[in-house]
Design brief:
The protein has 426 residues and is α+β, with helices and mostly antiparallel strands. The protein has helices at 14-20, 22-34, 40-55, 93-101, 115-123, 156-225, 231-262, 272-290, 307-324, 381-391, and strands spanning 59-66, 71-78, 87-89, 105-108, 128-136, 139-148, 267-271, 293-295, 302-306, 331-339, 342-349, 396-398, 407-413. It is 48% helix and 19% strand. Strand 5 and strand 6 form a beta hairpin.
């Protein structure tokens, strides 16, 4: 066709296409309709009307297969009362034959084998019935039943066109059903997530209150009756106090983890110097007691972050160094760097360090290194840091490049907008 022409221009004009090729025009009209529908009944109802118009029939019903109930269930209908036609048993009858043989079927009502069905359809004034299987991906998902009060002229081209229309309808319907199923699964997951979160908050609250009571009672017992107990008795009271304190700490850390993971971020312009000053003040007594120095960056840095979450992450890392740095720990250093689109914060120490094989596992919930045995802790501190970094569009990791000690790092995206509390989510 291009042999003697340099350019062919044919604009997409549906009216002209209808004049040139009516079949393709019908398919284009159906395709455009199906692409704009997201509700199943709306999609199937409009598709049924287009097929009825194509064949020139006045009534139609569309059934979807229900394998679990061994039947086809009526979903939409046009031009006919659905009474008595709500379901069609699978395996018997004209409709099931169309589905089983995957064939377009047309027959006079009077020639149907089911006498009861003949009487029902005849009472509605129908002379001809047509069954169109809805097939997609080599699977019959339903059947479109059409009926007419007059004989319908059927040419093979018309039948082929109608079968292609049935395939388009089936494919679109399956996509909508899958989308609806995914939406329902997402809704159920959201409900389950909310229920788990509520349970966690409630359980932690309910766990902390009696633990606090046990802790207080054990302390009171030691004060009032400790002098009447032998060394073993006093040791037992001490163990009770430690166990109660551990439960309190665990409840507090679980709540902190849930907040880090789920609570909406309150992004503002944050002064890193001010945040670190607060961390330093909070840890001052422990640092002094251990004889450990805390070195902070001197430059003023302003970043977009949730101030409370940022302070929590830095506090956890300093606390982690103090807990697990070992007896030789003498210095903890906080470093700020800019790495392209990220702020990177590092907390390094000169302690015992972390084995390279635990570089990833140490951020896992309740995971603790063998070197931490005998040290009080919940196994949630680094997991909280990772969640805070994730919520700020960054990552958390262990840098094993320094020759001594440990260096824990986390990053925050530099372009987090203050007006979007969940900008870094996922």
């Amino acid at each position: 066709m291009l042999r003697n022409q340099r350019l062919i221009t044919v604009p997409l004009d549906q009216a002209q296409l209808h004049q040139r090729n009516r079949a393709l025009s019908v398919l284009l009209q159906l395709s455009n309709y199906l692409s704009t529908r997201t509700k199943l009944e709306d999609l199937l109802g409009g598709a049924l009307e287009l097929v009825m118009e194509q064949l020139g029939v006045g009534a139609g019903r569309l059934y979807l297969a229900e394998p679990e109930n061994d039947c086809f269930r009526l979903v939409v209908h046009r031009g006919v009362s659905p009474e008595g036609l709500e379901t069609v048993p699978a395996g018997v009858g004209f409709t099931s034959k169309a589905a089983r043989t995957r064939s377009f079927l047309a027959m006079r009502v009077e020639d149907l084998e089911d006498a009861e069905r003949v009487a029902l359809l005849a009472s509605k004034g129908f002379m001809v019935v047509i069954c169109l299987p809805l097939i997609t991906r080599d699977r019959v998902i339903g059947v479109m039943n059409l009926a007419s009060e007059e004989l319908v002229p059927l040419e093979i081209d018309t039948i082929d066109l109608t079968m292609v229309m049935g395939n388009l309808v089936a494919t679109a319907a399956e996509s909508v059903m899958q989308a609806q199923e995914l939406g329902e699964q997402a809704r159920l997951l959201a409900e389950q997530k909310e229920a788990v979160q509520f349970f966690a908050y409630t359980a932690c609250h309910d766990m902390k209150s009696p633990a606090t009571g046990v802790h207080g009672l054990a302390r009171m017992l030691a004060q009032r009756a400790g002098h009447n107990l032998d060394q073993k008795g006093r040791a037992i009271i001490g163990q009770i106090e430690k166990a109660a304190q551990r439960i309190e700490d665990l409840a507090q850390e679980v709540n902190a983890y849930i907040r880090a993971k789920e609570a909406p971020l309150k992004l503002t312009e944050v002064s890193l110097r001010e945040v670190l000053a607060g961390v330093s003040a909070e840890m001052a007594e422990r640092l002094e007691k251990r004889g450990v120095s805390l070195e902070l960056p001197r430059d003023e840095v302003v970043l977009s972050a949730d101030s409370g979450a940022l302070a929590r992450a830095l506090t956890n890392l300093v606390d982690n160094a103090l807990k697990y740095g070992g007896p030789g720990l003498s210095r903890i250093r906080v470093i700020h760097q800019e790495d392209g689109p990220f702020h990177v914060l590092k907390v390094s120490d000169d302690g015992v360090g972390v084995p390279a094989e635990l570089a990833e596992k140490c951020f896992t919930l309740f995971k603790r290194a063998d070197t931490s045995q005998g040290t009080e802790g919940t196994g949630l501190g680094l997991a909280i840091v990772r969640e805070i970094a994730r919520r700020h569009g960054g990552l958390a990791w262990l840098d094993n490049s320094q020759p001594q000690g440990a260096c824990f790092c986390f990053s925050l995206a530099r372009d987090l907008p203050k007006t979007a509390p969940e900008a870094a989510q996922n």
